[in-house]
Amino acid sequence: MTRPTHGQHTAIVTGAARGIGAAVARRLAHDGLAVGVIDLNEADCVGTVEAIASNGGSATAVPADVSDETAVTAAVARIAAELGPPTVLVNNAGIGPRAELVEMSTQQWDMVTGVNLRGPFLLTRAVCPHMIAAGWGRIVNMSSISAVGDAARVDYGSAKAGLIGFTKSLALQLGRHGITANAIAPGFVVSDMTRASARRLGLDFEEYRRNAANSIPVGRVGEPEDIAHTASFLVSPEAGFVSGQIIYVAGGPMDRG
Ligand code: NAD
Fold it and tell me: Is residue 193 part of a domain?
């Protein structure tokens, strides 16, 4: 039997200028998808788009703040017009600043939940009609191990837990249209986000990374490509019977018993 391929499908990956999102975008392009690369600034997406193009893939950069309804609507319309109707969506854009609860401004709460939870809602609502029309779709939401609790970031932990409820609800509501929805919950992954955490804690990144690796069962931290491999499977034609699942990609189980 020949392996089913993506054919002419189009994917949207948010927060794909760098880090995990960039790795996911490159991997999905390698898998044969045209990729709409969304991030805050178009210029920041050049590296991702050029890497895809130099491997013979097809990508376009579209600037949008995922928490801005008007910008999201325009970005999805532009990607549909330039690359074809999107049937794969990876809601990856995220921010995770630290603040003690008692010092956390309402603006920070709104911003963190806005990017991490409202953003995926806006994107999914805008992309879903294309998936329903195609009778096929794949949604992957980037949650986090912080969904089970994050002592340093109650806003981030709440948004990432909310994404799990969102994912399961999407799976229940959209399955009859041939659409699956799953979440990836990464553990420690090398990126600007974890580099910023080390800086805020006043730690050298290599030391921070070594300490993290010591508490991870497989003895290392994650790389963006670890997440990209998992996303590649979840959006593949072969993953059509996997839906409503939370895949912890964290080098070990969350429940240590
Ligand atoms: P990163 O900071 O390296 O990249 C995040 C990207 O999202 C950046 O390109 C940024 O410009 C973009 N972005 C931020 N706000 C945006 C907005 N409003 N609209 C559009 N784009 C926006 O972070 P990363 O480590 O690659 O994280 C990617 C995702 O994985 C995030 O959702 C994050 O919460 C999640 N995650 C990361 C880790 C980790 O250890 N790195 C662990 C668990 C979950």
Answer: no
Residue 173 lies in a domain: yes
Question: By percentage, how much of the chain surpasses pLDDT 70?
Answer: 96
In angstroms, rounded to a whole number, what is the distance separating the alpha carbons of residues 224 and 212? 16
Number of Cβ within a 10 Å radius of residue 123: 26
Name residue 226's amino acid. Answer: D
Residues 6 or more apart whose CB falls under 8 angstroms from that of 100 comprise none
Amino acid at 170: L
Q: How far is CA 177 from the centre of its chain?
A: 22
Number of folded domains in the chain?
A: 1
> What pLDDT sits at residue 158?
98
Instruction: Give a yes or no: residue 178 inside a domain.
Output: yes
Q: Does 113 contact ligand 1 (Cβ within 6 A)?
A: no
pLDDT tens, residue by residue, 155-211:
999 999 999 999 999 999 999 999 999 999 999 999 999 999 999 899 999 999 999
CB of residue 66 inside a 6 A radius of ligand 1: yes
Q: Is the CB of 137 under 6 A from ligand 1?
A: no
CATH number of 157's domain? 3.40.50.720
Q: 95 in ligand 1 pocket by Cβ < 6 Å?
A: yes
CA of 53 to the centre of ligand 1 (A): 23
pLDDT of the residue at 21: 98
Residue 112 lies in a domain: yes
- Residue 180's H or E segment, with its range, is strand 179-186
pLDDT digits over 48-80, tens only? 999 999 999 999 999 999 999 999 999 999 999
What residues act catalytically? 156
> Which of 38, 89, 95, 248 to probe ligand 1 with, by most ligand atoms within 8 A of CB?
95
Domain range spanning residue 47? 6-187+222-248
| CA-proximal residue: ligand 1, atom 32 (nearest) | 94
Q: Ligand 1 centre from 108 Cα, in Å?
A: 16
The pLDDT, as a whole number, for residue 6 is 66
